[in-house]
Amino acid sequence: MNPIHAPFPLSRSRRLRRTPWMRSLVQETQLSVSDLIWPIFVRDGEGVREPVASLPGVDRLSIDLAVQAAEEAATLGIPVIALFPYTDASNKTPDASEAWNPDNLVNRATRAIKAAVPDIGVMLDVALDPYNSDGHDGLVRDGIILNDETLAALVQQTLAQADAGADILGPSDMMDGRIGIMRQALEANDFPDVAIMSYSAKYASAFYGPFRDAVGAQGALKGDKKTYQMDFANTDEALREVAKDLSEGADMVMVKPGMPYLDICQRVKSEFGVPTYAYQVSGEYAMICAAGQNGWIDQDKAMIESLGAFKRAGCDGVLTYFANRVARMLLDEEY
Ligand code: PBG
């Protein structure tokens, strides 16, 4: 693009920045409530709201309170909530079988939310890490994360979650071939309408720390996830991952983490033109909150700016722990 413009002073960029109304007239992208996906952590019990130390303002909620959060999200106009379980160590095993227990936490929470708040979308993660005593997303033998054995487990998890009423499944495990086997299993078992938002370009990242704390996987995790999550040095590889996932039946794709990977978001959107999402992950959220709490940055402004960056990069939406807060601000137009 090479805009034709007159030389200074005939052309002055500042004419279009002079007033709020003029700035809003020429604004190229807008963040709206309908772009938001709100991740929520669920735990056992009733009436329990347990703060996550490394995620200020984020709580683990018992199912009854998660239903209330879903009601709040629906009232605010947030289209989707994503549920993650805090699994007690006693439910973690080497075969991660709690992942496909029809009555596990996220499946019970999904049923309760779908019954009480039918107009909100529910998204569930497909990966074994909350349920695996090794803390890995796949099954582990002799220190190796097993690909094909894990696929069989993911199929069972997929079907249990679809049966619970999940609208969107988000495979976050990075095993090869997962999208294809999930899509085939959904078709074969009469769940043709369940959408898959693939964590296609998911990097092995230091920014997931607080999340692992929130789901109770931190202590369990042995080693790192570099044999299945991507190397942060790579870009072309992200495009190959997206291409594979689309060819196997993914409906939407995701880049994760978000803000340090805006180049990937932009390339994915411009090369494929499919619904593209970013996950503003726990470490990104924690950094903004920590600097805000110290008075080093204005937290609300940094939050809005960081989310606006995803829209500018071409994302259709963003998973963010700020979702309810930002929705309120957008609706009040007080930013
Ligand atoms: C699990 C999963 C992770 C996140 C979402 N799903 C952690 C990981 O891969 O270790 C991270 C989300 C966040 O940090 O906010 N497969």
Notable characteristics:
12 strands; TIM Barrel; alpha/beta; 38% helix; 335 residues
List the helices and strands and how they pair.
Blueprint: H1 20-26, E1 36-43, E2 49-51, E3 59-62, H2 63-76, E4 80-85, H3 105-116, E5 121-126, E6 139-141, E7 144-146, H4 147-164, E8 168-171, H5 178-188, E9 195-202, H6 209-214, H7 236-248, E10 252-256, H8 262-272, E11 276-280, H9 282-293, H10 299-312, E12 317-320, H11 323-332
Parallel strand pairs: 1-3, 1-4, 1-12, 4-5, 5-8, 8-9, 9-10, 10-11, 11-12
Antiparallel strand pairs: 2-3, 6-7
Helix pairs in contact: 2-3, 3-4, 4-5, 5-7, 7-8, 9-10
Ligand PBG binds at residues 125, 127, 129, 137, 172-173, 208, 211-212, 225, 281-282.
Walk me through this protein's architecture:
It is a single chain. With 335 residues, the chain is an alpha/beta fold. It has one domain: Alpha-Beta Barrel (TIM Barrel). Helices cover 38% and strands 18% of the residues. It is built from eleven helices and twelve strands. The protein has helices at residues 20-26, 63-76, 105-116, 147-164, 178-188, 209-214, 236-248, 262-272, 282-293, 299-312, 323-332, and strands at residues 36-43, 49-51, 59-62, 80-85, 121-126, 139-141, 144-146, 168-171, 195-202, 252-256, 276-280, 317-320. The strands form two sheets. It has an eight-stranded parallel barrel, surrounded by nine helices. α4 packs across α5, α7 crosses α8 and α9 (282-293) runs antiparallel to α10. Bound molecules: ligand PBG. Ligand PBG binds at residues 125, 127, 129, 137, 172-173, 208, 211-212, 225, 281-282. The site of ligand PBG has 12 residues, from α6.
